[in-house]
Specification:
Blueprint: E1 2-7, H1 11-28, E2 32-38, H2 41-47, E3 56-60, H3 69-79, E4 84-89, H4 96-100, E5 107-110, H5 114-136, E6 142-145, E7 152-155, E8 159-166, E9 171-176, E10 180-184, H6 187-194, E11 202-206, E12 209-212, E13 216-220, E14 225-228, E15 233-235, H7 241-247
Parallel strand pairs: 1-2, 1-3, 3-4, 4-5
Antiparallel strand pairs: 6-7, 8-9, 8-12, 9-10, 11-12, 13-14, 14-15
Helix pairs in contact: 1-5, 2-3
Length: 250
């Protein structure tokens, strides 16, 4: 059972959010439940004491309290580092603050975009429901990362690539389908971890970038460039182009 927590200070929007979630749970027969809806972020914090589950959260960024939704998410991460967080706001520019706080989110919902709100809520529920079911059925490999600043795990099929951000300070960027993480490690250690997976879909495209081949949309062999499904274009080194072609069976 996936527990859902909602923190939204607009009672009208909170009621609307609850209605969409409950209807979707009922129609799609999802193993989910809303355990708490509130305007008080401290009620969420108290409810998570002793929590050992991975939960789902819908958090309003602009809360009329002493802490905002992003600061609440930061506190949630202390007890639930892999919880699925969806931020809600009336001001899309507020989403930039999530990068300042380094709080990774599943998705962002803008209240003013009324036509897209309900659709996004349903998509988020479907995504989390599917991921948790697959994890429970051992259908997904999981990559765990640990560091002084952040700990967590992601499903391997969500990984887009790993990239060295700072070799001297051993900083790695992990880009996933919906989020980006920054943790302390070496790319060598990351690659060694993947050798243990029975079906390793990763390939080293240059000295600093380790890519999930299932996230590659196309490759330009002549220019030595790959285009990922998220639109990013990455360069393949001369030393690695042959291995990349073999891996992609070109």
């Amino acid at each position: 059972m996936i527990d859902i927590y909602i923190c939204e200070d607009s009672e009208n929007f909170r009621r609307s959010l609850i209605d969409v979630i409950q209807k979707n749970i009922l129609i799609e027969n999802r193993d989910m439940q809303i355990v708490l809806d509130t305007a008080d972020p401290y009620a969420i914090i108290d409810a998570l004491k002793g929590n050992t589950k991975t939960n789902m959260y819908f958090l309003d960024i602009e809360l009329c309290t002493t802490i905002n939704g992003i600061e609440l998410a930061d506190k949630i991460r202390e007890v639930d580092p892999t919880g699925y967080i969806v931020f809600i706001t009336a001001d899309a520019e507020k989403f930039l603050l999530t990068f300042e706080y380094k709080v990774q989110a599943l998705d962002y919902i803008v209240k003013m975009q009324s036509d897209a709100v309900n659709k996004k809520i349903r998509q988020c529920l479907a995504y989390v429901d599917d991921k948790v079911k697959k994890m429970n059925n051992n259908q997904l490999n999981v990559f765990a990362f640990n560091g002084k600043d952040i700990n967590g795990h992601v499903q391997v099929d969500d990984i887009v690539y790993f990239q060295i951000q700072n070799a001297k300070n051993k900083r790695i960027i992990l880009r996933t389908t919906y989020s980006q993480y920054n943790f302390r490690d070496t790319l060598k250690n990351v690659i060694e971890q993947f050798t243990a997976y029975p079906q390793n879909v990763m390939v080293l495209i240059n000295e600093s970038t380790y890519v999930n081949t299932e996230k590659i949309a196309s490759i330009d062999v002549k220019k030595r460039k790959i285009t990922l499904i998220n639109g990013e274009v990455l360069e393949v080194s001369r030393r690695r182009i042959k291995e990349v072609k073999l891996t992609l069976e070109i």
